[in-house]
Amino acid sequence: QVQLVESGGGLVQAGGSLRLSCAASGRTFSSYSMGWFRQAPGNEREFVAAISRSGSSTRYADSVKARFTISRDNAENTVYLQMNSLKPEHTAVYYCAASSYGTPHTSKSDYDYWGQGTQVTVSS
User: Fold this and answer.
1) What is the mean pLDDT of residues 84-95?
2) Do the Cβ atoms of 96 and 6 come closer than 8 Å?
3) Cα–Cα distance for residue pair 37/46, rounded to 1 Å
4) Cα 40 from Cα 38, distance rounded (Å)
């Protein structure tokens, strides 16, 4: 079992930045690749970014490339999502997830554990 707790969400003006954190506990954090997903009201949960077990490989949704950066600190059992140049369309609940796959995956079905989510609201 892996428990995931997100933090760092909030209200920010368009053009601003936020850094989300996801703290993991339970089984060995470095055994899992990690991902961030988001879900806006009325929409499906969608892939945002993912990172391999070691952190050497990452993948991003086209819509967030060059704006968002995923990283991890295996010593701190934490994965981060740095979000820059935020837009109102980035408003959503952001979830982190853990996958037993070693490489970064984009499909929700490839993830085994999920956090409760953190709300990000970007005002215009």
Assistant:
1) 97
2) yes
3) 5
4) 7
